[in-house]
Amino acid sequence: MNDQAAKRRDEASAIITSGHIWHAVWYLAWPTAINTVMQSAYNVINRIFLGRLGDGAAPALAAAGIGGTILMVQFAVMIGLSVGTSALVARFLGAEAHEDANEATRQSLILAVIGGIVTMLPLIFLANATVRLVGAQGTVVPLAAGYIAIIAYASIPAFLYMIVTTALRSAGDVRSPLYVGALVIALNVLLDWLLIFGIGPFPALGVWGAAIATSVSRLVGTILIFGFLARSALSGSISHFRVHWGWFGRIMKIGWPAALQNLLWTTAFAGFIRVLACLPKATSAQAALTVAGAIEAVAFMPGIAYSIAATPLVGQNLGAGKPKRAEHSAWVATAQAAAIMSLVAVLFVTIPRQLALLFTDKASVVPLIVSYLRINAISEPFLAIGMVMRGALQGAGETRIPAWVAFITNWAVRLPLAWFLAIYLGYGAPGAWAAMCVTTILSGVLLIAWFIRGSWRTTEV
């Protein structure tokens, strides 16, 4: 590691563990917020492109939604590895154990390659059966199956990109992921436009074109982010690669509950789509969920940014022996995220139809998007609370309680309630949206109650 990288590391640690807390929160959150805005903008543009495919728009949107839900299972494994990485790297850097931080990153990279291979194979060879299981019907089946299989080929780059980005952020370097993320998203949008519509010499591939664009962008992003890692305070992590089972155990001890938590959420969401498949106009409901989810991603933006910021804030301060500062940092991040997401929710109440028409003008889909936005606007502040509290607990290495909360809210409450309201009582898709709203509120309340309890302060990593 060169002197400049060491200086940047020390400056970042000083801000996180010694500076003004509001400044530390903003220092970590704003680059991630910008990156998330760009990612949200990409999701919006991607859905707009697919929504302009004429008669093929609804099947394409449904395919992208179903395919994205299945790919979230893989993403859950990525999250599990990255949470183990972030908790260990942040804690070690806070304690100034730099060699341990490098080793944690190195072993996480090895696990990323393994995870990419293991999750890639079933996505490629069982694509058709999987999309049918989730609820794809008719022409949506081959579209969704091709979508996930194409993206699956870039699984190893996706895992590596996630781990490197997480390690850099845990070290306080939030700008490098921002720069790479901006370039990746710009490339993805360009390739989407060329390949979805068939511009110039490129073939018109529709939703499969979107999948190819994602895979190519992932590969380019991985190459770029490794360049930043090689010049960072964790540059020592990309040499002397040897498997250490003890480190695997430490990473996965923290990571597997986080992976399980996201897996529970993802499989429950797949079950939610399955509930929608039981409705008379299933494809319209599934398309509405896809579009509304892309719009709601705008509200997710501050929640994701502040959740990511809360992880090193809590982890590094616990490593530095400052549990009170860790707790105060988490509360500040939660308050800022909830305030911003509440403002965004106002738009969901006041102009939902205008937002829906940005994506599609299908008469069967627009009213369902409008009802989704208005109903779930109520839960946005609680969504912010839940996201940031989860990030704070993960920074402390406490990942089991969030997994239990995910099980209770998504499987024990959301799915049965969605079926009861949408199917049994006959409220249709709006009934399912109401079940989502109720359980989002419940999740935020449960996580904040556990954080107040305070046992996370003594969690060992």
Q: How would you describe the overall organization of this protein?
A:
- It is a single chain.
- The chain is an all-alpha fold and 461 residues long.
- The chain has one domain (3-458).
- Helix content is 82%, strand content 0%.
- Helix 4 (98-125) packs antiparallel against helix 6, helix 5 (127-134) packs across helix 6 (140-152) and helix 11 packs across helix 15.
- The protein is globular, with a radius of gyration of 21 Å.
Itemize the secondary structure elements and their pairings.
Layout: H1 3-17, H2 21-51, H3 57-94, H4 98-125, H5 127-134, H6 140-152, H7 155-170, H8 175-197, H9 207-230, H10 245-277, H11 282-319, H12 323-350, H13 352-357, H14 366-376, H15 380-395, H16 400-424, H17 429-453
